[in-house]
Design goal:
By secondary structure, the chain is of the alpha/beta class. It is 44% helix and 13% strand. The chain has 18 helices and 14 strands. The strands form 3 sheets. The protein has a 6-stranded parallel sheet with strand order 3-2-1-4-5-6, with helices on both faces. Strands 11-10-9-12-13-14 form a 6-stranded parallel sheet, with helices on both faces. A two-stranded parallel ribbon has the order 7-8. The longest helix is centred in the middle third of the chain and has 32 residues. The radius of gyration is 24 Å and the shape is globular. The chain starts with 5 loop residues before the first strand and ends in a 7-residue tail after the last strand. The structure holds nicotinamide-adenine-dinucleotide and uridine-5'-diphosphate-xylopyranose. The site of uridine-5'-diphosphate-xylopyranose (UDX) has 19 residues, from helix 9. The site of nicotinamide-adenine-dinucleotide has 27 residues, from helix 5.
């Protein structure tokens, strides 16, 4: 197997950045260059005061230790490719917005452009690693493109090495992964390439956690893992609706079923709906794959996970309106949290966006506070969610606030959309004093102590619990 000394990562996003920063940290003998076409993103990665383009606990520390030592960020994609022995392709693969498979299939344009660039530029053999989440058999397409365009004496081995990190815990997930999965062709060359990549991870990951499988299994395992994780949340959210109707408590139910060692306690938190750039996209991708394989029942099964999530978000905003005497027109609602989960500034598919869109349609006034999401990002997301409303009108209806306390001032209702830890420590007495009465709280993340808040005077509504009488 080739001993890798130079790695290039194409795509400096949420995956490429943290992943390769950790490779650089753990492999000082390897030079890692992360390249991207987006100049401002690369500038941020290179910023002298470490104002990195993504917020991820622990990331800055890793970049401080490695940047300029054996970790480099650049927009010179061609140079990065030319110099590397091994190339991670870590570009985005969003859901297609138009054309064949629109709304379901992954848009592979960025993967293809990156692959063609590798074929055009490479003057020596390379190991090309799919890091992006892609539909099953994408590696085949990459190989065909590379083989058809390569120069003499250039060999390309394609590996699949999907990333399982979750945002907000990415650095820990990368330092101590449950497993690293590598898929390769089961040919001598494929297995050699697989061993080259495995020996990089072996610098910090125990050998029994490095799983090697066939290419297509590796690609499908990534979609399968995300589909099953999302399915757990949709299952628990479906149960939360039954709890609200019957008087059972979803946290107690989740606790009870999680004690079954076959089910396990993790990832059973009912919520206002899952968000993030992966779950919905990857399930839709799996739905499309099932349909392409003429398996409509399988497609319908997985599609229901996303439909349940849409239902959960809709159900929550309807509950807010119903509880506020069936109208929120002209009422001020404070939305705490805009990111799709705590400890990230990422807003892709965040449930908060859907809720705020619904509140806007009901002509409410909305105050938003999130400790990490940049204001421009909030405006961009709201504009995209309500293309019919001019931004100027949205900016009259919506105010972005500098703190949770400020957001709640003069509001009739507080809606908790993200489980930021600081929302557990809010001075609710003071919030109550400055709100309109009756003062309502809607907890979409099950983080507040409802009984205590009721004692203060709040009317409290929690996901997966019936209204208190
Ligand atoms: P991202 O949008 O944050 O980053 C992708 C980057 O690739 C962008 O900065 C873009 O400018 C760059 N890029 C696109 N085409 C390029 C090209 N031809 N040359 C150079 N740069 C190019 O996306 P992400 O969240 O990092 O996700 C990347 C992939 O990893 C996706 O397939 C995603 O499904 C998968 N994934 C994401 C997560 C996550 O938590 N975000 C976790 C596991 C897997
Ligand atoms: C997910 C996968 O966990 C990760 O393995 C994969 O690599 C990328 O996709 P991510 O989307 O970053 O990671 O975060 P995750 O922690 O999975 O949360 C996804 C969404 O589900 C968030 O909106 C979160 O709030 C929600 N969630 C999670 C719940 O509502 N309840 C839970 O019990 C867990």
């Amino acid at each position: 197997p080739v001993k890798v000394t130079k790695i290039c990562c194409i795509g400096a996003g949420y995956v490429g950045g943290p992943t390769c920063a950790v490779v650089a940290l753990k492999c000082p003998h390897i030079t890692v260059t992360i390249v991207d076409l987006n100049q401002s993103r690369i500038d941020a990665w290179n910023s002298p005061d470490f104002k990195l383009p993504i917020y991820e606990p622990g990331l800055e520390d890793v970049v401080r230790q490695t940047r300029g030592r054996n970790l480099f960020f650049s927009t010179d994609v061609d140079k990065g490719i030319e110099e590397a022995d091994l190339i991670f392709v870590s570009v985005n693969t969003p859901t297609k917005k138009s054309g064949i498979g629109a709304g379901f299939a992954a848009d592979l344009n960025y993967v293809e452009l990156a692959t063609r660039r590798i074929a055009d530029v490479a003057k020596s053999s390379k190991i090309v690693v799919e890091k992006s989440t892609v539909p099953c058999r994408t590696a085949d397409a990459m190989r065909t493109i590379l083989d058809a365009n390569s120069k003499p004496n250039c060999r390309f081995d394609i590996l699949s090495n999907p990333e399982f990190l979750a945002e907000g815990t990415a650095i820990n997930d990368l330092l101590k992964p449950d497993r690293v999965l590598i898929g390769s062709l089961q040919t001598p060359q494929g297995i050699d390439a697989c061993n080259s990549l495995a020996s990089i991870y072996a610098n910090w990951v125990p050998k029994d956690r490095i799983l090697t499988v066939g290419l297509w299994s590796s690609e499908l395992s990534k979609l399968a893992a995300n589909a099953m994780l999302a399915q757990r949340i949709s299952s628990v959210n479906a149960l939360s609706a039954i709890c609200e109707a019957t008087g059972a408590n979803i946290d107690e139910v989740a606790h009870a079923i999680g004690f079954d060692s076959r089910i396990g306690p993790k990832f059973l938190k009912a919520s206002v709906g899952f968000g993030g750039s992966c779950f919905q996209k990857d399930i839709l991708n799996l739905v499309y794959l099932s349909e392409s394989c003429h398996l409509p029942e399988v497609a319908a099964y997985w599609r229901q996970v996303v439909e349940m999530n849409d239902y959960q978000k809709r159900r929550f905003s309807t509950r807010v309106v119903d509880t506020l005497f069936k109208t929120i027109t002209g009422k001020r609602i404070a939305v705490l949290g805009f990111a799709f989960k705590a400890d990230t500034g990422d807003t892709r598919e965040s449930a908060a966006i859907t809720l705020i869109r619904d509140f806007q349609q009901e002509k409410a006034l909305i105050n938003i506070y999130d400790p990490q999401v940049p204001h421009e990002q909030i405006w961009a997301d709201l504009a995209e969610a309500s293309p019919d409303i001019p931004l100027a009108a949205t900016q009259k209806q919506v105010t972005i606030c500098a703190s949770a306390i400020e957001a709640c001032k003069n509001a009739e209702a507080v809606v908790i959309a993200t489980e930021w830890k600081e929302f557990c420590d809010i001075d609710w007495e003071s919030v109550y004093a400055h709100m309109k009465k009756p003062a309502f709280i809607f907890d979409g993340r099950i983080i507040v102590d409802a009984d205590r808040l009721r004692k203060i005077g709040f009317k409290v509504t929690v996901i997966g619990r019936a209204e208190a009488l």
